[in-house]
Amino acid sequence: MSNPLFYAKILLFGEYGIIEDSQGLTLPYSFYKGTLKFSDLNNDFEKKSNLSLKKYSDYLTNLELPDNFKLNVSDFQKDIEKGLFFDSNIPQGYGVGSSGALVAAIFEKYSIKKYTPENIAKEELKDLKKVFGLLESYFHGKSSGIDPLICYMNLPILIENKENVDRVSIPKSEEGKGAIFLIDSGMTGETGPMVQIFFEKMKTEGFRKTLKEEFIRYNNACIDAFLKKEMNPFFKNLKSLSVWAYEHFKPMIPETIYKAWKKGLDSNAYYLKLCGSGGGGYILGFTKDYEKADKMLQGFHKEIIYRF
């Protein structure tokens, strides 16, 4: 029985802002993926994964889900006894949705009512996002449900606001000088503590004001320009967004990336932003000239995810 693959996700825009009702834009990233498998649990990775599934199944036993989205937890538990584990190369703590892919895989296999992602109506997406939020909150304390939703749908998703999401088509990646790329900060980040810092900051009126009036405005303008393929306004707003994050999200920017972030802003050769909650993991880079940015970012491991 070959199980479907669930890809990692990249939140291009909307980190932290989506908590406060900004838009978000997110896409699947097929370089990393995971799938549920059975094995004799001979190695440590498989044993550890099987054990964490066992703990997760205990959480699911007590979780009240709406009728349309109930899971067959007893089947899940029987399979765990038979050696079920999540075979995944998605790095944890890198902001690319390791727990999202796991939740999506479990929902796909064990939901009592079967869904076909292509046929899910926009209204159902809203309900599914809530359910995924409940399923993923085990891993993060509080989840919007967006990560598992993207992993499950395997399509670019536009987050319109806190409640609504919709499928969206993004301009086709083409061979050009420009690129969106990932930079490995060389350290893992933990979502929980980073989100905690954000909520602490939200207690000050000045931060709340600048987040609403500046960050959200630049963020939404970037999404709008990117989807319309208008690259000049895109980079103009992107720079403002990168400057804003450099000033207000300092604790979330990994120390290893700090100078490189500033260098991009000073030279206008590339701009960096957080990928997910920050603190470590990947950072997103955007440039009109990848060769130039690549030279300036020597020493960092990079992966291109989109060309234009």
From TrEMBL:
<dbReference type="GO" id="GO:0016301">
    <property type="term" value="F:kinase activity"/>
</dbReference>
<dbReference type="InterPro" id="IPR020568">
    <property type="entry name" value="Ribosomal_Su5_D2-typ_SF"/>
</dbReference>
<dbReference type="InterPro" id="IPR013750">
    <property type="entry name" value="GHMP_kinase_C_dom"/>
</dbReference>
<dbReference type="InterPro" id="IPR001174">
    <property type="entry name" value="HddA/FKP"/>
</dbReference>
<feature type="domain" description="GHMP kinase C-terminal">
    <location>
        <begin position="255"/>
        <end position="300"/>
    </location>
</feature>
<dbReference type="Pfam" id="PF08544">
    <property type="entry name" value="GHMP_kinases_C"/>
</dbReference>
<dbReference type="InterPro" id="IPR036554">
    <property type="entry name" value="GHMP_kinase_C_sf"/>
</dbReference>
<dbReference type="InterPro" id="IPR006204">
    <property type="entry name" value="GHMP_kinase_N_dom"/>
</dbReference>
<dbReference type="InterPro" id="IPR014721">
    <property type="entry name" value="Ribsml_uS5_D2-typ_fold_subgr"/>
</dbReference>
<keyword id="KW-0067">ATP-binding</keyword>
<keyword id="KW-0418">Kinase</keyword>
<dbReference type="Pfam" id="PF00288">
    <property type="entry name" value="GHMP_kinases_N"/>
</dbReference>
<keyword id="KW-0547">Nucleotide-binding</keyword>
<feature type="domain" description="GHMP kinase N-terminal">
    <location>
        <begin position="84"/>
        <end position="153"/>
    </location>
</feature>
<protein>
    <submittedName>
        <fullName>Mevalonate kinase</fullName>
    </submittedName>
</protein>
<keyword id="KW-0808">Transferase</keyword>
